[in-house]
Design brief:
Layout (H helix, E strand, L loop, with lengths): L7 E6 L6 H15 L3 E6 L14 E4 L8 H14 L3 E5 H15 L3 E5 L10 H10 L4 E4 L2 H8 L8 E3 L9 H4 L9 E5 L8 H12 L5 E5 L5 H10 L6 E5 L4 H6 L3 E4 L8 H9 L3 E4 L2 H6 L6 E3 L4 H13 L1 H16 L6 H16 L7
Parallel strand pairs: 1-2, 1-4, 2-3, 4-5, 5-6, 6-7, 8-9, 8-11, 9-10, 11-12, 12-13
């Protein structure tokens, strides 16, 4: 077994491209060193979030020809043997396979961080392999009850199964003090442009809203449906009202400049941007799904059928027409989300319990 160094952790993630997992890595790269953990991050490829990694963390690039290149596991194994971390944590299915295999081979405690739910996965050989390896993980952490439930029948180490909510990037106090200044009511979406997010429903809803109110909207993000969604907006006569700025880093300033944030996803793990909207105090309209219900209810959000453009449009119009009620909901949302989701104490406590448990009992050999 690789002899580990005290509080040293290696996070393994496929890339530092745009996504919720990558955003969480950025936040942890600052929070964990501040809590006394020597933090290392291994990724196959870089991306926009690479520049956001805190200087207190060490970044390691693991080159590969493709996502399931077997050399990834070999190189991660060599990195683990060199660093001797006390914990290896893997992010996203590809790294759960390759990074998990390297951690098991090194006999270092291995944590899977589940950021999705069962609806996110198709049944194929990669998922089957992830299931098989995951049975031997030292612990499973999910950012939602739905994600944790997915693993309960696949891993028997229930002592170290836990839900830890996503960290939230808090805006600077000075930015929060700047009053909103916009000419027209503003609607905002930030996220991946994929089928899961049901952005096409939002665009259809915006067409309904635009017939009753002079609005402007931004749909921020990138993804496989980018061209299709732009064409849809143009065909509905929204070319002047809806902008597609692509991936953006300045999410907080856009939230502060918006009257309503909308997310009508079909499923989520725990949505970062919805939480950020709540922290900033932007009223939210969200689909009525379990992941959204975990962080919001009718007192602090407008919950709608995310498949129904008319229902989404009605919620947007109600929010714009009743700013005082919307502000009251937003104030409750901010109170609900800011304190429990802002820190990394839950992570450090979990790691310490896991290490204490690993010292109490030997690991089973083999996978």
């Amino acid at each position: 077994m690789t002899q580990s160094h005290g509080k040293r952790i290696l996070h393994c993630i496929p890339t530092l491209m745009v996504g919720g997992a990558e955003r969480q890595i950025v936040l942890l790269s600052a929070a964990l060193p501040a809590a006394g953990w020597e933090t290392h991050i291994a990724s196959v490829r870089g991306g926009p979030f690479e520049a956001q990694i805190d200087s207190a963390a060490t970044l390691h690039r693991i080159g590969a020809a493709h996502s399931y290149d077997p050399r990834i596991a070999v190189r991660l194994y060599a990195l683990i043997r060199r660093l001797r971390p006390s914990i290896v944590q893997t992010w996203l299915p590809m790294m759960d396979v390759t990074g998990g295999a390297a951690a098991l081979a090194s006999r270092v405690p291995w944590v899977i961080f589940e950021q999705a739910s069962s609806l996110a996965y198709d049944n194929d050989w990669r998922l089957a392999l992830r299931h098989r390896l995951g049975r031997w993980a030292s612990g499973i952490v999910a950012n939602s009850q739905g994600g944790l439930a997915w693993w309960h029948d696949r891993n028997d180490r229930h002592e170290f199964h836990e839900v830890i909510p996503n960290l939230v990037m808090l805006p600077p106090a000075a930015e929060m003090a700047v009053p909103r200044q916009a000419q027209r009511p503003r609607v905002l979406y930030v996220g991946r442009l994929s089928e899961q997010k049901r952005v096409a429903t939002l665009i259809s809803a915006l067409a309904i809203v635009s017939r009753q109110a002079d609005i402007e909207a931004e749909i921020c993000g990138d993804g496989p449906l980018s061209s299709e969604l732009r064409a849809q907006a143009e065909s509905l006569g929204l070319a002047g009202a809806v902008q597609f700025p692509g991936f953006v880093m300045d999410v907080h300033s856009r939230l502060r400049a918006s009257d309503v944030f909308v997310s009508v996803s079909a499923f989520e793990g725990q949505p970062n941007t919805v939480q950020e909207a709540m922290v900033v105090g932007t009223p939210i309209v969200v689909s009525d799904i379990p992941a959204h219900r975990e962080i919001a209810d009718e007192r602090c959000a407008m919950l709608v059928d995310g498949d129904d453009p008319q229902a989404v449009a009605t919620a947007i119009l109600d929010t714009l027409a009743s700013p005082l009620r919307a502000a009251a909901r937003a104030a409750l949302a901010r109170k609900r989300v800011a304190e429990p989701f802002a820190g990394a104490a839950a992570w450090t406590a979990y790691y310490e319990r896991l290490l204490a448990g690993s010292r109490r009992r030997p690991r089973r050999d083999g996978a």
